[in-house]
Write a structure and sequence with these properties.
three-stranded antiparallel β-sheet, mainly beta, 2 domains
């Protein structure tokens, strides 16, 4: 593993059949220390949207992306997905259960600790609205209704 702050020099040479080519131009690289882990997200909140749960949190310093975890009724946490934003919608959440969520922020060098748990009771699934029955067609052949001839101009 490269030592942070050290300078390294590289060149490339091709070897074939026991013969080596001339060396390429030299390249220099400086090793930097790894970035500190990002902060965990703060103020995780959840809102039930029928058969979905919307999660929101404050942006965590140093975060490039977020991993969202959830569980229902004291089950095991499982990864629900990743997002670049500070929000996530858990589609098709099971109806009428206690769901708990937590979020971790991460970047190339590591991940944060999970944020504080947020719990919400999920709602009932959304139901399709019934369409009104079509109005009955007018019957123009009823007695007492007089038909007028159509005129064309």
């Amino acid at each position: 593993m490269p030592e942070p702050g050290a300078k390294y020099y590289y060149f490339v040479q091709a070897v074939r059949g026991g013969r080596a080519s001339q060396a390429s131009a030299m390249a220099q690289a400086t090793a930097f220390p790894p970035l500190p882990s990002p902060e965990p997200p703060a103020h995780l909140r959840a809102a039930c949207l029928g058969d979905a749960v919307e999660l929101r949190w404050n942006h965590a310093r140093g975060a490039a992306a977020y991993a969202v975890y959830g569980r229902v009724e004291d089950g095991e946490f499982r990864l629900l997905g990743h997002t670049l934003d500070n929000g996530f919608v858990h589609e098709a959440a099971p109806p009428d259960v206690l769901a708990e969520y937590r979020v971790r922020s991460y970047h190339d060098s590591g991940a944060s600790e999970p944020c504080a748990l947020c719990a919400v009771r999920t709602g009932q699934p959304r139901t399709q609205r019934a369409r009104p029955a079509p109005a009955p067609a007018l019957n123009l052949n009823l007695p007492g209704i007089r038909r007028f001839p159509a005129f064309r101009a």
